[in-house]
């Protein structure tokens, strides 16, 4: 039987979970058929490992945009993507988020052709997410764009989420060198 102090500490730990915005590439890699492409196969394995071993350490969030994007494509694949998103809290996309996504584009943080990617960043920033989890390294988790995104967030009064891949949020392994 747990003492009152241990129960309190467990509740406090749960209340202090960091927040993670799950962008569409995560359920895509998580539920896709095994790839023969080496990089894609590795990302699938890492995503599965994070999902199985680490997601419970975080408070997960997504948005209607992720649901819409995950709904596209082959019906069976869409059903698998939507299945893993079931039960995850959905963040509201309002006028403030729309305006901030446009600012991210106008100020060079995200390219004009990647409006949905700007919207993902805006959702995570405006809602104060700790992390934005993605495999989109072209427009979102891009080393040359992240400093620009951070600066736009700061100048706009938002805290920029740490934009990262599942590999970066895996628990530390004492066997790693």
Structural class by SSE content: alpha/beta
> Distance between the terminal alpha carbons, to the nearest Å?
38 Å
How many helical elements? 8
The radius of gyration is 17 Å
* Order of helix and strand elements from N to C terminus: HEHHEHHEHHEHE
CATH topology (level 3) name: Rossmann fold
Please indicate the count of domains.
1
Number of strands: 5
Q: What fraction strand?
A: 5-15%
Cα shape: globular
Strand count, sense and closure of the main sheet? Answer: 5 strands, parallel
Give the CATH level 1 class: Alpha Beta
Architecture (CATH level 2) name: 3-Layer(aba) Sandwich
Which strand order do you get reading across the main beta sheet? 3-2-1-4-5
CATH superfamily: 5'-nuclease
Give the low-confidence spans: none
- Helix content, binned percent: 40-55%
Rounded average pLDDT: 93
Present the secondary structure layout.
Layout: H1 4-15, E1 18-22, H2 25-31, H3 38-53, E2 58-63, H4 64-71, H5 75-85, E3 89-91, H6 95-106, H7 115-126, E4 131-133, H8 146-155, E5 162-164
Parallel strand pairs: 1-2, 1-4, 2-3, 4-5
In short:
With 177 residues, the protein is α/β, with parallel strands linked by helices. It is built from eight helices and five strands. The protein has a five-stranded parallel sheet.
């Amino acid at each position: 039987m747990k003492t009152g102090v241990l129960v309190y500490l467990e509740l406090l730990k749960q209340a202090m979970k960091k927040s993670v915005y799950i962008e569409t590439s995560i359920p895509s890699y998580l539920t896709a058929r095994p790839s023969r492409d080496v990089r894609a196969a590795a990302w699938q394995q890492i995503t599965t490992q994070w999902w199985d071993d680490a997601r419970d350490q975080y408070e997960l969030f997504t948005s209607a945009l992720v649901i819409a994007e995950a709904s596209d494509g082959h019906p069976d694949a869409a059903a698998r993507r939507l299945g893993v998103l079931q039960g995850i809290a959905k963040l509201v996309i309002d006028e403030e988020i729309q305006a901030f996504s446009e600012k991210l584009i106008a100020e060079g943080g995200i390219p004009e052709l990647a409006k949905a990617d700007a919207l993902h960043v805006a959702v995570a920033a405006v809602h104060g997410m700790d992390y934005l989890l993605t495999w989109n390294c072209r427009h979102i988790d891009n080393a040359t764009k992240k400093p620009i995104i951070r600066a736009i967030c700061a100048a706009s009064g938002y805290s920029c989420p740490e934009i990262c891949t599942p590999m970066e949020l895996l628990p530390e392994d004492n066997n790693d060198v």
